Amino acid sequence: MTAPPGRRERKKAATRQKIADTALRLFLERGYDAVGIRDVAAEADVAVTTVFSHFASKEALVFEQDEDFEQRLTRAVTGRAREEPLIPALRREIQALVRHCTADSTAPIWRMIDESPALRKYEESMRLRHAESLATAIAADPDLTQTTTACRTIARFAIDGYSLAREAADPETALDEIFRMIEAAWAAARRPEDLAGTTRP
Questions:
Q1: pLDDT per residue over 141-171, tens digit each?
Q2: Does the pLDDT value for residue 14 go beyond 60?
Q3: Residues 199, 83: contact at Cβ < 8 Å?
């Protein structure tokens, strides 16, 4: 069992959340380009160096759940039950992420991202990084014997599927369609010798 975080870790997490919440409020109130790191630090009552100790860039302030998102994706692979196939496990987690990101409260944030070239570029690089982490988790599973290329391809499909479903008028229907194709692609990548006697396809 994982030990609960200590006082220092809780304080650090609270400071990080305060900075992120403050930044997002300022970005939405004044516009992303009109707010600088110094503005965020002053409003959050912390030093500029404290902001940078928690966030590597201004763009990262908008995507403060980036690390959690990545961990949830990899845990969908590593934490699933032994008898559970890979693709349904991935679909369930991505469906939860899509639902979170299509809530009414997130609409102003996505509008801001869509209107900012810097944020769009950051999001694209973030998706690529998530896809690589997901591919690494899939490739490391001893019960999954696909090639590295197959693992990377499915991971890219899954990450792109998240983005496409999030932007769709009907995210649930889009996910159904997307994951039927992902399932077919994963099945097509399996080698004939792997088709018999596997419990986690």
A1: 888 878 899 999 999 999 999 999 999 999 9
A2: yes
A3: yes
